[in-house]
Amino acid sequence: MSRKTSILDKEIADLLKKVREESGLSQAAVAERIGLSLKSGKGYISHLEKGWIKNPPIGTILLFLRACGASWVEFFKELDAIDFKMRHEKMIVQVQPAPTKRKIESALGGSIKKKSPSPLYSPIQGEEGKKK
């Protein structure tokens, strides 16, 4: 099953999974510590770790971290560092200059020949040579 996740949801999910794995707990154990039923709780934790829960509530994140014995301060510091890195990388991509014709030709192994542009419309018969 393919579900769309935002980049931030995915980063939160990956970080939560990392925290749980570092704590040595299973998804079922985290669900139980949070107070969720075993049957639906494990599925909820799985969805949370896959980023399928959009904008997970802060209370849920805090319960998850507490269940894993993790510091919420450290979690959000790491999340902030990831967010900063993503924004920085996006800015770098945005300021990269466009490739020059020479670079494109070099990559293609040949020259780019300029074609005459196609008209957007066909002139009316008898109007071909007239200028406005």
* Radius of gyration from CA coordinates: 27 Å
Number of helical elements: 6
CATH superfamily label of the domain at 7-95: lambda repressor-like DNA-binding domains
Helix content: 55-70%
How do the helices and strands follow one another from N- to C-terminus? HHHHHH
* Cα-to-Cα separation, first versus last residue: 59 Å
What name is given to the CATH topology of the domain at 7-95? 434 Repressor (Amino-terminal Domain)
Largest β sheet strand count, sense and barrel closure: none
Approximate shape: elongated
Tell me what the CATH architecture of the domain at 7-95 is. Answer: Orthogonal Bundle
Low-pLDDT windows of residues: none
Total E-strand runs: 0
Q: What's the rounded overall pLDDT mean? A: 79
CATH class of the domain at 7-95: Mainly Alpha
- Global structural class: mainly alpha
Strand content: under 5%
Outline the secondary-structure elements.
Blueprint: H1 7-23, H2 27-34, H3 38-50, H4 58-68, H5 72-95, H6 101-108
Can you tell me about this structure?
It is a single chain. This protein has a domain at 7-95: lambda repressor-like DNA-binding domains (434 Repressor (Amino-terminal Domain), Orthogonal Bundle). Helix 1 packs antiparallel against helix 5 (72-95). The longest helix is centred in the middle third of the chain and has 24 residues, at 72-95. The chain has six helices and no strands. The mean pLDDT is 79. It is elongated, with a radius of gyration of 27 Å. It has helices at 7-23, 27-34, 38-50, 58-68, 72-95, 101-108. The chain is an all-alpha fold and 132 residues long.
